[in-house]
Specification:
α1 (about 5-25) packs antiparallel against α2 (about 35-55) and α2 runs antiparallel to α3. The protein has one domain (about 5-230). The protein is an all-alpha fold. The longest helix has 30 residues, at about 60-90. The protein has helices spanning about 5-25, 35-55, 60-90, 95-120, 125-150, 155, 165-190, 195-215, 225-230.
């Protein structure tokens, strides 16, 4: 697989931004309230260089590794929502189970729709890609729905725009929404996959910079006083 200079530049930018996020979180001890997010960043730093190495060895090896890494990354990003819900719903612990149930129900419903779509289209040589992207799309859709719900009720939850939990959710929401558009563009339109990959990587870099900004300057405290006023 041939990589261009821009691919290496974006990859290096991703790694540097994620390393800076880890450093900022460790310095501010944010890895304690957000352990899954901290692990997610570590996982990305471990898997991305491995994927780059495979791309220089064999396209076939890179092809299967790419979709394996994609699934692992999605599962890890789902785990991050435990951090988000736990910190956003500290005053309302009963809502955590409800939000988790809504999230997994959304994943199941969208995944079922994607499976039916793949069945109706029939089997082809892109079986692995179609089914993997279907699972990813289902998860991304549920993530967007959950993040939108949190944003709509952020006033009642005491989540300010400057809080870290908002920044983490914002980064994932931004990437999930644009990633779904990239997947749709790659599957249902005649678009250059190399360009789509570069755009997707650039969007992930933007998400990493959002996380970096909040990890460095974001508030670790929620507005508990505001919550009390909303329900008074």
């Amino acid at each position: 697989m041939h990589l261009r200079l821009v691919d290496y530049v974006i990859w290096a930018g991703d790694c540097l931004a994620l390393l800076a996020v880890l450093a900022a979180m460790h310095k501010r001890r944010l890895h304690r309230p957000y352990p899954y997010f901290f692990f997610y960043i570590l996982l990305q730093l471990a898997l991305n260089p491995l994927l780059l190495l495979f791309s220089t060895i064999s396209y076939r090896l890179y092809y299967y590794a790419y979709y394996a890494v994609l699934m692992v990354s999605v599962v890890a990003s789902v785990a991050v929502f435990r951090d988000i819900l736990r910190n956003a719903l500290t005053v309302f612990p009963g809502l955590r189970d409800l939000m988790a149930l809504m999230f997994w129900s959304s994943v199941a419903l969208v995944l079922a729709a994607m499976v039916l779509l793949n069945i109706s289209r029939g089997q082809d040589n892109n079986f692995l890609a179609d089914w993997t992207l279907s699972a990813v799309s289902a998860t991304r859709t549920a993530q967007c729905a959950l993040i939108l719900l949190l944003f709509c009720f952020r006033k009642y939850l005491g989540i300010s725009f400057g809080s870290i939990v908002f920044g983490i959710a914002l980064g994932f929401g931004f990437f999930a929404a644009t990633n779904m558009l990239m997947i749709a563009g790659g599957r249902f339109a005649s678009m250059n996959h190399a360009v789509l990959s570069q755009v997707n990587s650039g969007i992930y870099l933007a998400s990493a910079l959002i996380w970096l900004g909040y990890a460095m300057r974001g508030s670790a405290q929620l507005q508990t006083a505001g919550r009390a006023e909303c329900f008074a």
